[in-house]
Specification:
about 425 residues, mainly beta, ten-stranded mixed β-sheet, six-stranded antiparallel β-sheet, 26 strands, globular, disordered N terminus
């Protein structure tokens, strides 16, 4: 089995004022308002008779019960030791050691209008979005500690998405794919050398199923329980010792965060926009026509902590099916990137040495970019795409001292940009 290359250590400084809350075996760091609430959901509408019953389970209760209250002076038992939490390698969220070692599962998710709203995106640790057919985008969601009640609609594979899934030796769930992608997946490389091939054409029921409320090909779904069963079905290891690729830090104190800010990332058939929200230090997402993007499985607004825009060369894929307008991407090498978190922006560089190597992010100083603990959306766009943004401003302190007032906000505060990169 291929080992994930060594990468950067996660930096997690638990500063004062940072909240830590347990949720289904995970601890979320940041402002209290940004911690997720326990939710339960199902795939859009009732599933067809071929779909398995709902497998949603309540979050596990605290293992240590509080002693009963009484006026008795009898001594109480010593508290039982609890397992130390560790950062999840994909997003830095504190989780149990068992969750941190769960085998990563990558799922291809549709993004045509008929597929919206999608399910499962809010539970993913990392979500990649990139052009597929002629520029129409598609998602790939990476699940580590997340347990989504529904995931879908699941769609076909592309080689460059496989390259990003390969960074985690992922079990790769999809429904068919381009000839280029299937040639790799159906070879020995799809048996753990690059990824673990989990094609719906082989692993349908009970792992993936079709719902009757949507028309094919926008109706293939699964859920968190069956994704874990799919790992076993492909004979992939259930547990992995992953090395983090990116470094993370907790949320800054709210007085350091700006107010306002927007990002717009256009694709051929979708226009993605983010509006920075200071209270949660996150980026609520909106899509074309539908507006606010909500996970159909949990009714949760999709609001990542980090937005990474990667500029990459795309060109027509010569696969003898020109009518499909498929694309190929230069996913190795290096290029420009924009990293948004904490209401600010860093002009960065992405680097990926090989098909299975991690995609690293470096700042202008050549050092790794620090992301904020939590979900990351990676928007991959063709070089020359007009990605626009406006950064917010840090408000002045309510009671500034005339002699030692805080330093002014960074020069980038309030910056407006139209980021176009020529070939």
């Amino acid at each position: 089995m291929r080992r994930v290359p060594a990468a950067l250590l996660v930096v997690l400084a638990l500063a004062g004022g940072v909240g830590i809350g347990l949720f289904a075996g995970r601890a979320v760091m940041g402002n209290p308002s940004s911690s997720p609430s326990a939710v339960a959901g199902v795939s859009p509408g009732a599933t067809s008779s071929a779909a398995p019953p709902s497998s949603s389970a309540p979050a596990p209760s605290d293992a240590s019960a509080a002693p009963g209250e009484s006026g008795s002076p009898e001594p109480t038992a010593s508290p039982q030791p609890t397992s130390a939490l560790v950062p999840d390698p994909l997003d830095g969220v504190l989780v149990t050691p068992a969750l941190a070692k769960r085998h990563v599962v990558a799922v291809m998710i549709d993004d045509l209008w008929a597929a919206r709203p999608q399910s499962g995106l809010s539970a993913a640790s990392i979500v990649w979005q990139a052009p597929a057919e002629g520029g129409i985008p598609r998602y790939m969601a990476l699940f580590s500690e997340g347990n989504p009640p529904a995931v879908g609609p699941i769609r076909s594979s592309r080689l460059y998405f496989i390259a990003w899934a390969a960074e985690w030796d992922a079990v790769y769930a999809h429904v068919g794919g381009s000839p280029q992608a299937l040639a790799l997946l159906n070879s020995s490389q799809g048996q753990g050398k690059v990824v673990w091939n989990a094609d719906e054409f082989r692993y349908a029921k009970p792992y993936m199923w079709r719902i009757s409320q949507r028309q094919a090909p926008h109706n293939v779904y699964t859920d968190g329980k069956h994704l874990r069963l799919l790992v076993k079905a492909t004979h992939a290891p259930v547990s992995m010792s992953y090395t983090p690729h990116w470094q993370f830090a907790p949320d800054p104190s709210i007085d350091q965060l700006p107010v306002g800010g927007t990002i717009v990332v256009p694709y051929l058939a979708n226009r993605i926009s983010y509006s920075y929200q200071r209270s949660t230090n996150s980026y609520p997402r909106a899509v074309s026509v539908e507006g606010k993007q909500v996970d159909a499985g949990t009714k949760t607004r999709i609001s990542p902590k980090n937005v990474v825009v990667i500029f990459m060369h795309f060109g027509p894929l010569n696969d003898h099916e020109p009518q499909k307008h498929r694309l190929e991407a230069t996913f190795t090498g290096s290029g420009k990137a924009l990293v948004f978190n904490n209401g600010r922006m860093v002009r960065a560089t992405w680097r990926k040495a090989s098909l299975t190597a991690p995609t690293y992010l470096y700042g202008p100083d050549g050092k790794p970019v620090t992301l904020t603990v939590g979900q990351t959306f990676v928007q991959v766009v063709p070089i020359g795409t007009a990605v626009t943004y406006k950064l917010g401003k840090v408000p002045p302190a309510p009671t500034p001292s005339p002699s030692d007032a805080p330093s002014p906000s960074p020069s980038s505060a309030g910056e407006v940009g139209d980021w176009r990169l020529a070939l």
